[in-house]
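Researcher: Please translate sequence to structure tokens.
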Amino acid sequence: MAILRKIKEKLKNIVQKKIALKKKKPEIKKEILGAEELAIEKTKFSHAEAVRVRREMATDLPYQYDQDKIILQVRDPRWIHAYWEVRGYTLGRLRNELKDDFFKAKRVLRIYDVSQIIFNGTNAHRFFDIELSPDANNWYIDTGGPGRSWCVDLGLRLPLGRFITIVRSNIVHTPLEGPSLITDEEWMIPEDMFARLYGMGFGLGRSSPVGKAWQERVKEVLFSGVLASPGITSVASPVKIPKEKKFWLMVNCELIVYGATEPDAKVTVQGKPINLRQDGTFTLRFALPDSKQVIPVKAVSSNKDEERTITPIVTRDTK
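Model: Translation complete:
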């Protein structure tokens, strides 16, 4: 009997364990389903993250561009600036060609004054040299005067004075230090402002002019030949307004000739000597009738060793 009782208890325990296992399985499934639903819920309103491209900082400019080049630029009316690059290949070629002279040569900048000419390498008004240090790759240049055109050669000056150009720059034009002395008659100003400016200049007062008497005074000054452009030699006849005609038209032309040379040079125009400004520039105004005009301009250096002549030829034909 005792043995049967033990068997019944064991069977009862086994049955109870199976029942307990059956009850636990749905709970586990429920927990699993809950985890999936939670994950779905979390991703329900999420979006794919945009791919961000990493921004890289620009790298430094290269020290050299493997070119034979020199650039000339204007700093102010008297100073210009040059910077350059010469390839190692070019220096090696010169070293092979010049042999020992290459190591004896001076590296220089040759600065040419090419004002108002078409520069071909040999016709500059003048030039001067600046010796460079071996590691220089740019230089500020004092031109000594405003209102001129410049070109620069980087090259080698050999012991016997021969100059070899390595690279030639662009041409730059330095501005004048003050207002231009050449007037542009296409730019008109209102009559009131005109009267104020020229009235003050001829003692006619600061106030705006009124009355016919004042206008007659202005006309008298304007057409008497007094109002030539500043610094311009005028040989043109003044224009006379025909007062007897109600409707009229008059057209005339004048010729302006201007140039520059060394300040201490002697200059003649059509055989007549003219005065130069302090910087060597000059400006003249001529009458321009219907005809052909030949205007030779001759400059002689102060030591009389050099001279140049340029001859403008102008023809007017009024229809």
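Researcher: Any highlights?
Model: Residues 200-211, 221-238 have pLDDT under 50 and may be disordered.
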